[in-house]
Amino acid sequence: MNIAKPAALLVAATALLAGSTVAATAATTPDGTRVTSVQQVADQVLAGHPKPLSASADQVRYNGLTLTKAPQGAAAKKDLDCAYGHLCMIVRGTKFDFYKCQTWTVSNWTGDGPFTNNQTPGTVARFYNQDGSVRWTSTAYEAGTATWDPIWSLRPC
Q1: Mean pLDDT of 90-104
Q2: How many CB atoms within 10 Å of residue 94?
């Protein structure tokens, strides 16, 4: 599978979900495609993936990953809600919920944010530098705060 297209879509989806009015927010993917709605992001993802996808005003879902607007205020300060078997994190106002074991290329991850590794006990999630070396790991169950820059890829399992 070509990872460049999903990475571009993660960037676009993050930009869209971080806005206060998703449908009215515009973003541009790294390849120059103008994205004006979460549904448009889903349409682009569908073109590159054989599995059915769904999108709404506050969620983009595809095979192995769900992106949603992160909780704000007091809800954001509680432990990050993450289903059993999943690796979840908040990056720049977007909750990433990974549930498929594969390497995910990411970009424009900055700042600090909470994470929860709620996978089966002992499962190790790996976060990588630009050169592919391991930046840090998390062994399930673990929750805390991470510094996202510079994370260039991750593997939940």
Answers
A1: 88
A2: 21
The CA distance from 5 to 47, in Å, is 10
Residue 104 phi/psi, 5-degree rounding, is -115, 125
Query: What is this structure's pTM?
Result: 0.68
Question: With the CA atoms of 105, 145, 100 and 35 taken in that order, what torsion angle do they form, in degrees rounded to the nearest 10?
Answer: -50
Closest CA to 29 of 4, 60, 65: 4
Per-residue pLDDT of 9-62, as tens digits, reads 444 444 444 432 222 234 444 444 444 443 443 343 324 434 536 767 778 777
User: Is the omega angle on the peptide bond into residue 30 within 30 degrees of 0, that is, cis?
Assistant: no
- Helix, strand or coil for residue 46? helix
What is the Cα–Cα distance from 134 to 125, expressed in whole angstroms?
10
